[in-house]
Amino acid sequence: MPTQTHILLIDDDEVDRQAVRRALSASDLTWVLTEAANAAEGLALAGEKAFDCVLLDYRLPDADAFDVLGALLAPRCGINAVLILTGETNPETALDLMRAGALDHLSKAELNPSGLARAIRYAKARRAFLAELEQAKREAEEKSLALDALNRQKALLLSIIAHDLRNPFQAIIGLSDSLSRTAAQKDPAKVQIRAQAVQEAAVQAHALMESLFDWAQLQMDSGNVELEMVDVAAIAQEATSVCRHTAEEKGVSVSFDCGGGMVRAHRDMLATVLRNLVGNSIKFTPAGGGITIACEKGTDGRFVIHVRDSGVGMSQQAIDNLFRIDRRVTTPGTAGEKGSGLGLLLCRDLVERMGARMEVASKVGEGTAFSLVFEGLSKQ
Protein backbone atom coordinates (compact mmCIF):
# COMPACT_ATOMS: atom_id res chain seq x y z
CA MET A 1 0.00 0.00 0.00
CA PRO A 2 1.48 3.38 -1.02
CA THR A 3 2.60 5.63 1.80
CA GLN A 4 0.29 8.55 2.45
CA THR A 5 1.68 12.02 1.91
CA HIS A 6 0.43 14.52 4.50
CA ILE A 7 0.10 18.00 3.02
CA LEU A 8 -0.80 21.32 4.67
CA LEU A 9 -2.30 23.92 2.31
CA ILE A 10 -2.32 27.53 3.56
CA ASP A 11 -4.30 29.73 1.16
CA ASP A 12 -7.08 32.28 1.79
CA ASP A 13 -8.66 31.80 -1.66
CA GLU A 14 -11.24 28.99 -1.83
CA VAL A 15 -10.94 28.85 -5.64
CA ASP A 16 -7.18 28.35 -5.41
CA ARG A 17 -7.61 25.68 -2.74
CA GLN A 18 -10.11 23.90 -4.98
CA ALA A 19 -7.60 24.00 -7.84
CA VAL A 20 -5.00 22.32 -5.61
CA ARG A 21 -7.52 19.62 -4.62
CA ARG A 22 -8.30 18.93 -8.29
CA ALA A 23 -4.62 18.69 -9.20
CA LEU A 24 -3.94 16.30 -6.31
CA SER A 25 -6.94 14.14 -7.23
CA ALA A 26 -5.69 13.86 -10.79
CA SER A 27 -2.14 12.97 -9.69
CA ASP A 28 -0.78 9.54 -8.76
CA LEU A 29 -0.08 10.60 -5.17
CA THR A 30 -1.74 9.01 -2.14
CA TRP A 31 -2.43 12.12 -0.12
CA VAL A 32 -4.09 13.57 2.96
CA LEU A 33 -4.79 17.30 2.67
CA THR A 34 -5.28 19.67 5.60
CA GLU A 35 -6.43 23.18 4.71
CA ALA A 36 -6.00 26.54 6.45
CA ALA A 37 -7.58 29.78 5.22
CA ASN A 38 -5.05 32.11 6.87
CA ALA A 39 -1.52 32.22 8.29
CA ALA A 40 -2.53 32.02 11.95
CA GLU A 41 -4.59 28.87 11.40
CA GLY A 42 -1.86 27.34 9.25
CA LEU A 43 0.89 27.96 11.79
CA ALA A 44 -1.28 26.51 14.56
CA LEU A 45 -1.85 23.33 12.53
CA ALA A 46 1.85 23.10 11.64
CA GLY A 47 2.72 23.22 15.34
CA GLU A 48 0.24 20.47 16.23
CA LYS A 49 0.69 17.88 13.45
CA ALA A 50 3.47 16.44 11.31
CA PHE A 51 3.33 17.22 7.60
CA ASP A 52 5.50 15.99 4.75
CA CYS A 53 5.25 19.37 3.07
CA VAL A 54 3.42 22.71 3.18
CA LEU A 55 1.88 24.50 0.20
CA LEU A 56 2.02 28.19 1.14
CA ASP A 57 0.24 31.00 -0.70
CA TYR A 58 2.58 33.90 -1.40
CA ARG A 59 -0.07 36.55 -0.71
CA LEU A 60 -1.97 36.06 2.55
CA PRO A 61 -4.17 38.78 4.06
CA ASP A 62 -2.97 38.39 7.65
CA ALA A 63 0.81 37.92 7.28
CA ASP A 64 3.83 38.37 5.05
CA ALA A 65 4.84 35.18 3.20
CA PHE A 66 8.47 35.52 4.28
CA ASP A 67 7.45 35.76 7.95
CA VAL A 68 5.19 32.71 7.65
CA LEU A 69 7.93 30.81 5.83
CA GLY A 70 10.39 31.61 8.62
CA ALA A 71 7.91 30.50 11.27
CA LEU A 72 7.23 27.22 9.46
CA LEU A 73 10.95 26.47 9.21
CA ALA A 74 11.55 27.32 12.88
CA PRO A 75 12.14 24.42 15.35
CA ARG A 76 8.70 24.86 16.96
CA CYS A 77 6.94 23.76 13.76
CA GLY A 78 9.73 21.55 12.48
CA ILE A 79 8.64 21.91 8.85
CA ASN A 80 11.56 21.60 6.44
CA ALA A 81 9.71 21.30 3.13
CA VAL A 82 7.71 24.37 2.03
CA LEU A 83 6.47 24.97 -1.52
CA ILE A 84 5.27 28.47 -2.44
CA LEU A 85 2.11 28.89 -4.54
CA THR A 86 2.31 32.22 -6.32
CA GLY A 87 0.78 34.25 -9.08
CA GLU A 88 3.98 36.32 -9.26
CA THR A 89 6.14 36.13 -12.37
CA ASN A 90 9.06 38.10 -10.93
CA PRO A 91 12.14 35.80 -10.89
CA GLU A 92 13.76 37.90 -8.15
CA THR A 93 10.84 37.16 -5.80
CA ALA A 94 11.17 33.45 -6.51
CA LEU A 95 14.90 33.61 -5.85
CA ASP A 96 14.38 35.49 -2.58
CA LEU A 97 11.88 32.85 -1.42
CA MET A 98 14.35 30.06 -2.21
CA ARG A 99 17.06 31.91 -0.30
CA ALA A 100 14.67 32.19 2.66
CA GLY A 101 14.26 28.40 2.73
CA ALA A 102 11.46 27.51 0.32
CA LEU A 103 12.16 24.39 -1.72
CA ASP A 104 10.35 25.56 -4.83
CA HIS A 105 7.75 27.99 -6.12
CA LEU A 106 4.79 26.88 -8.24
CA SER A 107 2.79 29.15 -10.49
CA LYS A 108 -0.94 28.96 -9.75
CA ALA A 109 -1.68 29.69 -13.38
CA GLU A 110 0.37 26.69 -14.53
CA LEU A 111 -0.57 24.28 -11.73
CA ASN A 112 -0.94 20.74 -13.10
CA PRO A 113 -1.12 17.25 -11.53
CA SER A 114 2.27 15.97 -12.67
CA GLY A 115 4.19 19.13 -11.77
CA LEU A 116 2.55 19.36 -8.35
CA ALA A 117 3.17 15.66 -7.65
CA ARG A 118 6.82 15.96 -8.70
CA ALA A 119 7.38 18.98 -6.44
CA ILE A 120 5.68 17.27 -3.48
CA ARG A 121 7.71 14.08 -3.96
CA TYR A 122 10.90 16.11 -3.97
CA ALA A 123 9.78 17.94 -0.83
CA LYS A 124 8.95 14.66 0.90
CA ALA A 125 12.29 13.13 -0.10
CA ARG A 126 14.12 16.21 1.17
CA ARG A 127 12.23 16.00 4.47
CA ALA A 128 13.28 12.36 4.87
CA PHE A 129 16.88 13.19 3.93
CA LEU A 130 17.07 16.04 6.44
CA ALA A 131 15.60 13.81 9.15
CA GLU A 132 18.25 11.17 8.44
CA LEU A 133 20.92 13.86 8.41
CA GLU A 134 19.75 15.18 11.79
CA GLN A 135 19.72 11.66 13.23
CA ALA A 136 23.24 11.05 11.92
CA LYS A 137 24.34 14.34 13.45
CA ARG A 138 22.89 13.37 16.84
CA GLU A 139 24.55 9.97 16.70
CA ALA A 140 27.88 11.58 15.77
CA GLU A 141 27.56 13.99 18.69
CA GLU A 142 26.75 11.13 21.07
CA LYS A 143 29.77 9.17 19.83
CA SER A 144 31.92 12.27 20.20
CA LEU A 145 30.76 12.72 23.79
CA ALA A 146 31.37 9.03 24.51
CA LEU A 147 34.86 9.32 23.01
CA ASP A 148 35.58 12.40 25.12
CA ALA A 149 34.44 10.52 28.23
CA LEU A 150 36.61 7.56 27.26
CA ASN A 151 39.62 9.82 26.77
CA ARG A 152 39.02 11.41 30.18
CA GLN A 153 38.78 7.98 31.77
CA LYS A 154 41.97 6.94 29.99
CA ALA A 155 43.80 10.03 31.26
CA LEU A 156 42.53 9.42 34.79
CA LEU A 157 43.51 5.77 34.60
CA LEU A 158 47.01 6.72 33.52
CA SER A 159 47.26 9.27 36.33
CA ILE A 160 46.19 6.60 38.83
CA ILE A 161 48.83 4.23 37.51
CA ALA A 162 51.47 6.96 37.50
CA HIS A 163 50.71 8.17 41.02
CA ASP A 164 49.07 5.47 43.12
CA LEU A 165 50.90 2.49 41.70
CA ARG A 166 54.26 4.25 41.87
CA ASN A 167 53.99 4.86 45.62
CA PRO A 168 53.79 1.23 46.82
CA PHE A 169 56.54 0.15 44.42
CA GLN A 170 58.78 2.94 45.65
CA ALA A 171 58.02 1.75 49.17
CA ILE A 172 58.90 -1.83 48.21
CA ILE A 173 62.21 -0.71 46.68
CA GLY A 174 63.11 1.43 49.68
CA LEU A 175 62.04 -1.17 52.23
CA SER A 176 63.77 -4.03 50.43
CA ASP A 177 67.00 -1.99 50.39
CA SER A 178 66.60 -1.33 54.11
CA LEU A 179 65.82 -5.02 54.63
CA SER A 180 69.04 -6.03 52.90
CA ARG A 181 71.10 -3.73 55.12
CA THR A 182 69.27 -4.89 58.25
CA ALA A 183 69.82 -8.54 57.32
CA ALA A 184 73.53 -7.83 56.91
CA GLN A 185 73.51 -6.48 60.46
CA LYS A 186 71.90 -9.75 61.63
CA ASP A 187 69.06 -8.06 63.51
CA PRO A 188 66.10 -10.54 63.29
CA ALA A 189 63.56 -8.21 64.94
CA LYS A 190 64.22 -5.39 62.49
CA VAL A 191 64.29 -7.86 59.59
CA GLN A 192 60.81 -9.07 60.54
CA ILE A 193 59.46 -5.50 60.75
CA ARG A 194 60.95 -4.58 57.35
CA ALA A 195 59.71 -7.80 55.77
CA GLN A 196 56.19 -7.16 57.06
CA ALA A 197 56.26 -3.63 55.62
CA VAL A 198 57.43 -4.97 52.24
CA GLN A 199 54.61 -7.51 52.25
CA GLU A 200 52.00 -4.83 53.05
CA ALA A 201 53.27 -2.60 50.24
CA ALA A 202 53.22 -5.53 47.80
CA VAL A 203 49.68 -6.50 48.82
CA GLN A 204 48.54 -2.89 48.35
CA ALA A 205 50.13 -2.70 44.89
CA HIS A 206 48.61 -6.03 43.88
CA ALA A 207 45.13 -5.00 45.07
CA LEU A 208 45.38 -1.74 43.16
CA MET A 209 46.46 -3.51 39.97
CA GLU A 210 43.58 -5.99 40.29
CA SER A 211 41.07 -3.17 40.68
CA LEU A 212 42.59 -1.23 37.79
CA PHE A 213 42.56 -4.20 35.44
CA ASP A 214 39.02 -5.27 36.41
CA TRP A 215 37.65 -1.76 36.00
CA ALA A 216 39.50 -1.09 32.71
CA GLN A 217 38.36 -4.42 31.26
CA LEU A 218 34.77 -3.65 32.16
CA GLN A 219 34.96 -0.29 30.33
CA MET A 220 36.21 -2.01 27.17
CA ASP A 221 33.78 -4.93 27.29
CA SER A 222 30.57 -3.92 25.52
CA GLY A 223 29.18 -7.43 25.00
CA ASN A 224 25.87 -8.62 26.38
CA VAL A 225 25.85 -10.14 29.86
CA GLU A 226 24.14 -13.53 30.15
CA LEU A 227 21.92 -13.59 33.23
CA GLU A 228 20.44 -16.59 35.04
CA MET A 229 18.50 -17.30 38.22
CA VAL A 230 21.02 -17.59 41.06
CA ASP A 231 20.84 -18.35 44.79
CA VAL A 232 21.79 -15.13 46.57
CA ALA A 233 22.53 -16.77 49.93
CA ALA A 234 24.90 -19.32 48.37
CA ILE A 235 26.75 -16.65 46.39
CA ALA A 236 26.98 -14.36 49.42
CA GLN A 237 28.42 -17.15 51.60
CA GLU A 238 30.91 -18.17 48.94
CA ALA A 239 31.91 -14.65 47.90
CA THR A 240 32.56 -13.43 51.44
CA SER A 241 34.47 -16.50 52.61
CA VAL A 242 37.73 -14.81 51.60
CA CYS A 243 36.86 -11.80 53.84
CA ARG A 244 35.91 -13.73 56.97
CA HIS A 245 39.44 -14.20 58.24
CA THR A 246 40.05 -10.44 57.97
CA ALA A 247 36.75 -9.75 59.74
CA GLU A 248 37.55 -12.21 62.55
CA GLU A 249 41.02 -10.73 63.05
CA LYS A 250 39.49 -7.27 63.32
CA GLY A 251 36.66 -8.41 65.59
CA VAL A 252 33.87 -7.65 63.12
CA SER A 253 30.94 -10.06 62.71
CA VAL A 254 29.44 -10.98 59.32
CA SER A 255 25.88 -12.37 59.25
CA PHE A 256 23.42 -13.40 56.54
CA ASP A 257 19.65 -13.04 56.22
CA CYS A 258 18.93 -14.05 52.64
CA GLY A 259 16.62 -17.06 53.01
CA GLY A 260 16.16 -18.87 49.70
CA GLY A 261 16.03 -15.75 47.58
CA MET A 262 16.67 -16.15 43.85
CA VAL A 263 17.47 -13.29 41.50
CA ARG A 264 18.26 -13.04 37.79
CA ALA A 265 21.90 -11.96 37.70
CA HIS A 266 25.40 -12.92 36.56
CA ARG A 267 26.86 -15.22 39.19
CA ASP A 268 30.49 -14.06 38.99
CA MET A 269 29.59 -10.38 38.73
CA LEU A 270 27.29 -10.57 41.75
CA ALA A 271 29.96 -12.43 43.73
CA THR A 272 32.53 -9.74 42.87
CA VAL A 273 30.16 -6.97 43.96
CA LEU A 274 29.30 -8.64 47.29
CA ARG A 275 32.96 -9.43 47.97
CA ASN A 276 33.96 -5.80 47.38
CA LEU A 277 31.09 -4.37 49.42
CA VAL A 278 31.71 -6.66 52.39
CA GLY A 279 35.45 -5.98 52.21
CA ASN A 280 34.71 -2.25 52.17
CA SER A 281 32.38 -2.59 55.17
CA ILE A 282 35.04 -4.49 57.12
CA LYS A 283 37.47 -1.69 56.37
CA PHE A 284 35.21 0.99 57.86
CA THR A 285 33.70 -0.96 60.76
CA PRO A 286 35.58 -0.89 64.09
CA ALA A 287 36.14 -3.88 66.35
CA GLY A 288 32.91 -5.07 67.93
CA GLY A 289 30.83 -3.89 64.96
CA GLY A 290 28.84 -6.00 62.54
CA ILE A 291 27.97 -6.46 58.87
CA THR A 292 24.73 -7.99 57.57
CA ILE A 293 23.87 -9.21 54.08
CA ALA A 294 20.08 -9.27 53.82
CA CYS A 295 17.55 -9.82 51.04
CA GLU A 296 14.20 -8.13 50.56
CA LYS A 297 11.51 -9.05 48.05
CA GLY A 298 8.92 -6.42 47.16
CA THR A 299 5.33 -7.05 46.08
CA ASP A 300 6.10 -5.47 42.70
CA GLY A 301 8.72 -8.10 41.87
CA ARG A 302 11.66 -6.01 43.03
CA PHE A 303 14.47 -7.89 44.74
CA VAL A 304 16.92 -5.94 46.88
CA ILE A 305 20.19 -7.15 48.37
CA HIS A 306 21.37 -5.01 51.29
CA VAL A 307 24.91 -4.90 52.67
CA ARG A 308 24.67 -2.99 55.96
CA ASP A 309 27.38 -2.18 58.48
CA SER A 310 27.63 -0.42 61.83
CA GLY A 311 30.75 1.45 60.80
CA VAL A 312 31.83 5.06 60.76
CA GLY A 313 29.39 6.12 58.03
CA MET A 314 29.77 8.92 55.47
CA SER A 315 28.73 12.51 54.91
CA GLN A 316 26.39 13.42 52.03
CA GLN A 317 29.32 15.04 50.23
CA ALA A 318 31.29 11.80 50.42
CA ILE A 319 28.28 9.88 49.07
CA ASP A 320 27.93 12.32 46.16
CA ASN A 321 31.57 11.70 45.17
CA LEU A 322 31.58 7.92 45.66
CA PHE A 323 31.07 6.99 42.02
CA ARG A 324 33.01 9.82 40.36
CA ILE A 325 36.40 8.71 39.14
CA ASP A 326 37.43 12.34 38.65
CA ARG A 327 36.94 12.87 42.39
CA ARG A 328 38.33 9.55 43.52
CA VAL A 329 39.29 9.78 47.19
CA THR A 330 40.75 6.98 49.27
CA THR A 331 40.07 7.02 53.00
CA PRO A 332 41.99 4.86 55.48
CA GLY A 333 39.92 2.28 57.32
CA THR A 334 39.34 2.20 61.08
CA ALA A 335 42.53 0.15 61.48
CA GLY A 336 44.51 2.15 58.92
CA GLU A 337 43.58 -0.11 55.98
CA LYS A 338 44.32 1.33 52.55
CA GLY A 339 42.30 1.02 49.36
CA SER A 340 42.43 1.98 45.69
CA GLY A 341 39.24 4.03 45.56
CA LEU A 342 38.16 2.00 42.52
CA GLY A 343 36.28 -0.84 44.23
CA LEU A 344 32.93 0.95 44.43
CA LEU A 345 33.24 2.21 40.85
CA LEU A 346 33.75 -1.38 39.75
CA CYS A 347 30.74 -2.50 41.82
CA ARG A 348 28.48 0.21 40.39
CA ASP A 349 29.44 -0.66 36.80
CA LEU A 350 28.97 -4.40 37.37
CA VAL A 351 25.55 -3.86 38.94
CA GLU A 352 24.42 -1.70 36.01
CA ARG A 353 25.70 -4.29 33.52
CA MET A 354 23.27 -6.73 35.17
CA GLY A 355 20.38 -4.30 34.59
CA ALA A 356 20.15 -3.32 38.25
CA ARG A 357 21.14 -0.23 40.20
CA MET A 358 23.11 0.53 43.36
CA GLU A 359 21.80 2.81 46.11
CA VAL A 360 23.66 4.17 49.13
CA ALA A 361 22.36 5.35 52.49
CA SER A 362 24.72 6.50 55.22
CA LYS A 363 25.15 8.88 58.15
CA VAL A 364 28.34 9.78 59.93
CA GLY A 365 28.68 7.60 63.02
CA GLU A 366 25.66 5.43 62.14
CA GLY A 367 27.00 3.06 59.50
CA THR A 368 26.37 2.55 55.79
CA ALA A 369 23.96 0.49 53.69
CA PHE A 370 24.58 -0.41 50.04
CA SER A 371 21.49 -1.75 48.24
CA LEU A 372 21.45 -3.65 44.94
CA VAL A 373 18.02 -3.17 43.39
CA PHE A 374 16.84 -5.68 40.76
CA GLU A 375 13.53 -4.69 39.14
CA GLY A 376 11.02 -7.45 38.36
CA LEU A 377 13.69 -10.14 37.97
CA SER A 378 13.31 -12.19 41.13
CA LYS A 379 11.41 -15.01 42.74
CA GLN A 380 11.38 -16.63 46.13
Short description:
This protein has 380 residues and is an alpha/beta fold. It has helices at residues 14-26, 39-48, 65-73, 91-99, 113-184, 188-220, 232-239, 241-250, 267-283, 316-320, 343-353, and strands at residues 5-10, 31-36, 53-57, 59-60, 63-64, 82-86, 104-107, 228-231, 253-257, 262-265, 290-297, 303-309, 357-363, 367-374, 378-379.
Q: What does it look like?
A:
By secondary structure, the chain is of the alpha/beta class. Among the domains are: 5-111, Rossmann fold, CATH 3.40.50.2300; 224-380, Heat Shock Protein 90. It is 52% helix and 20% strand. The strands form 4 sheets. The protein has a 5-stranded parallel beta sheet, with helices on both faces. A hairpin with a 5-residue loop joins strand 11 and strand 12. The longest helix is centred in the middle third of the chain and has 72 residues, at 113-184. It is elongated, with a radius of gyration of 35 Å. The mean pLDDT is 82. It catalyses: ATP + protein L-histidine = ADP + protein N-phospho-L-histidine.
Estimated structural class: alpha/beta
Number of strands: 15
Series of H and E elements? EHEHEEEHEHEHHEHHEEHEEHHEEE
Number of helices: 11
Q: What is the overall shape?
A: elongated
Rg is 35 Å
The quaternary structure here is: single chain
Per the CATH scheme, the topology name of one domain is: Heat Shock Protein 90
In CATH terms, the superfamily of one domain is Histidine kinase-like ATPase, C-terminal domain
Helix content: 40-55%
Would you identify the CATH architecture of one domain? 2-Layer Sandwich
Strand coverage percent: 15-25%
In terms of per-residue confidence, which ranges show pLDDT below 50 for 5 or more consecutive residues?
none
